[in-house]
Amino acid sequence: MNQLDTLLLISLITALISGLGRRHQLIGWATAILLTVQFLALLSISSLGYGGTVIESAVNLTILGQPLSWRFDGLSWFFALITIGAAMASSFFAAGIWAKKYKKHGGNPGLLQFAMSLNVFTMLVLLASGDLLSLFIGWELVSWASLLLMVLAGGIATQWGLRYIVYATAGAMSILAGIGIIYHLTGSFAYADLAAAASTFSTTHVVVLSLLFIAGFGVKMGLLPFHLWQAGAYAETPGPGSAFLGAISSRMGLYAMLIVVFQLIGLGKMIAVEIPFTFLSLRDLLMWVAAFTIIFPTYTALRQNDARYLLAWHGIGQGGYMMMGLLLLDPVGSAGGLLHVFNYATNQAALFLAITAVVYRTHTADLNRLGGLVNRMPLTFLVLLVGIIGLAGIPPMNGFVSKWLIYRSLIIEGMPLLFVATVIGTLGTILSVYKLIHNTFLGQLRLEHEHIREVPWSMLAPMLVVATIIFITGFMPGLVLDWVASAQAALGFTPLAYTLGGVETARGSLDMIWLCGVLFGGFGVGALLFYGGGNKAKRVHQLDNYAGGHFLTADTRYHYSNNFYAGLMHHIGGWYRGTFKWLESSLISIVSLLSGLTQILFHSYHPALFLLITATLSLYFFIG
Amino acid sequence: MNNIAFTVALPLLAAFLLPIISNSSKSAARFIGPFVLLAMLGFSLAYFNMLEHPVAIALGGFRPPLGITFHLDNLSLLMASIIPLIMLVLWPYANIEGYREESLLLLLAGSASGLALSGDLFNIYVFYELLSVASFGLAAANRTGAAFAATFRYLVMSGLGTVLALTGIGLIYTQTGTLNLAHIGLLASQLNNPAGLSAFALIVIGIGVKAEIFPVNGWVPEVYSTASPRISALLAGLISKLAVLVIVRLLVVAYQGPEALTLLLVLGMLGIIWGELSAWRSKDLKRMLSFSSIGQLGMVLVAFSIPGEAGMVAGIAMMLHHLVVKPGLFMLTEHWNGSLNKLAGAAKSSPLAAVLFMLFALSLIGVPPFPGFWAKLLLVTGLVEANTPLYLTALAVLLSATVIEAHYLMHTAIRMYSKGKKKQVKKLHQTPFTLTIISVFAVVLITALITMAPLGNKLQHIAAESSDRALYINTTFAARHTPVRKQISLIKQQSKVQ
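^ Those are the sequences you sent over. The predicted structure of the assembly is below.
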């Protein structure tokens, strides 16, 4: 029983307690506190985040002659930190006053807490897996635990959950096939045997295995073309649950892909695999998949009119950045990819919690029914602002650092087209997060929202903590780059040379402390000039403004939200064709048609005829 | 040492005596059935515990290859213990009036254990016929028009199947001059020709009617959706497995060649496709479960078509898993019958039953760590190890079918957890009695999950033993204490004399 076992045990106990006590009033706080205990247990093995050696679990099983083992390394620790952190923020948010209202509206807050703690436990089991079999077990546990979180809201959420589980099962079966083939080739499920044998694999094996695993793990990441399930499934989960899922759930796909495809099979081999009739290697193809995963979902997000869906679609797109960074395979790009996992998790958690706070007060996430809330909910506005700056990758928030690393690496590695593609994606992100903050917080307040107040402190506190983390890790990215470097080392990459303020390489450096200093210094100088010149700030009332040259009176409130970016849509609107949806529905039609045909056999009046036909055919098979 | 014969004789005797006893004392008649089953269980468990290595028992003093042989190894005794066990769980305790069903059930129990233990084709045929008669009666026990129609369908198919199987057995006899399985094993080389293989095909298709093999399973959805859930549970869970067992025994002793395995593989694959696709479209829980059962039996067949021990262990694991899960699911339809749409609100009305449905469904899909996952894992590794294009196609079929399975099972689960109309929800209440029966299967499943490591070892031991052809042959002929080669010459002399 070492520290890793303690962590897993505490996590299991958390899930059990919140499961058994899910009807109790205080279960929310109990879960949140137990998650904090898990966080402390994780900190007790924080040496892993600073280049410590692998911790093996004392638990070992042998089932059907197959050994199962669990262990934690720098990469697992990094992902576990994000997992438990996101769960803590969501759990504290959901524990207090939010739960009361949720319960009043027919929800079951205890079940939500249970589902979240169960997800944390299964994710830790996945992160700790020490061989392919335990990896698959962890993978499936995570898949089915997140189904619970997705469907517990009932109604439309169950439909999304069903869609999710079909995709997830298809992914899992693809992984199982891959694991089966590896078992055939190496004779075991151990990581070490795979790593040793991988160099002897033929090109066909490398291609087949990579495609099976990337498709399988990619389903959870929402990699194109397996992304259709994700936005709805995450968005329809009750608020804090969305924050948790959005922050970390689909990153489990990235983690598993890193272990199996990058580390064990070896992505280096994919550079050598040329795709016939093109000038692309297998890795180039994957990078373009990542690029399209950035672009398409981000521009789909731009068209959403529901704040939750908008954020969830971004989650898919941001996964593309991580994948892109890691596929670059150099110290800078891979650090960018891993750092973006952390940064994006903080951004998404802050954003979803802020939107949940808005929904808590206004009962809607419809971007056409909000507006002007900045005066009523200033702190929520601040959190959302910090979050969108981070998500869009603008200094001084942390999202900038990771995206900068990825851009930098794309340029160093000489991939200008992909660079342009990621920039197009970032442009879409900036446009859509502006739409988000504009439609909810800016403009004129709607009449029905006159009376609302800021959300209570039990909800504000976790939001502000996350926002602070976003700023601090943007100001001093070196704090996180420590952990990233350990994760890189665990994966076999060359760790990035970093400083507290950023990176220092021969081909370009970034120092966020200096950059923030200039930024805030610039503001300071501006303010000095302004106030020093004897100018005075003038407060303008929210309703004291004009639209199209007309003065708007206080009784006809006006807020431009519908058909946002009409000009842009005029140009790119024709590109939205719903091709993936069409593909999905044609697949369903084919299955439906086939199953209609199969049922003919069972509706036949003369089933005995089939018996005779089969007998004749099989006799022919043997005699003829 | 011949006490094991009681597991066949006792229930058969009780089945015939039951109507007479029932005339004089109804309460005595009610106790006889469970008592006989307990006795059967006692005998087979005692043998199961004592068994160190496989034993062949010649009944009536005739030595093999003449006379009636029982082949006792871990697999046959396991099945012989499961038969009374599952019957005890599914016994109609609530049935106070009449004795018909009890009598038929005892007949079924006796013939089923005969089928599991028999070591020669003639007895297998006889017990199979008895089994059929009992199952016709049970399938029609509801006495509704639909049940009669379904049973008639079953009867026609089963009857034709028996004719085919008998033809096959006859062909084997003309080729080898014997019906003793071990003896057939000795003479297996004489079956490796078109006639011998045709015999196998005829037996597979004939017996396959009960094993729900594609495409001779046209009766399955009709019978299972009209018979009472207990009977469907028995037929889908137990009887189909016994029919598979016969095929497996033949496969082990005489048909190790690729042709026979290919036939099984192709039929199994088609069964998976047909079953799962039809289940995906069905609108009624009972029909859905029966189609899913066809798909699962397809998977069992695919598993057994993998050559060697890998196939045996995967097949037995799939078989036992389905044997526990499907009866549990069928018992749920006791109160949850009719259209799937009517199931809305079922979880609210009987939360425990909905949780049990989820448990069975997850295991059936093969979600780790449930036992179904380990069975499926064995099947996947076995298929990959076999490594021919056809086996890899089967792997692709199996994995795609799992996705479809996950969709329809979860779709049903989500219906159960959705809100329903109050009036309808009331009807969906499961009685404590049914819930207890279902819970028994769930407890078995969870126990298997907890004891997966030792269970896996035991399973591999059983598979190693039952896939050993030489062991099967030697077990029977070792009784003579003469070398096998000498026996062969002796047998040849005998047949010449005849």
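The mean pLDDT of chain A is 89. The radius of gyration of chain A is 26 Å.

Shout if you want it in another format.
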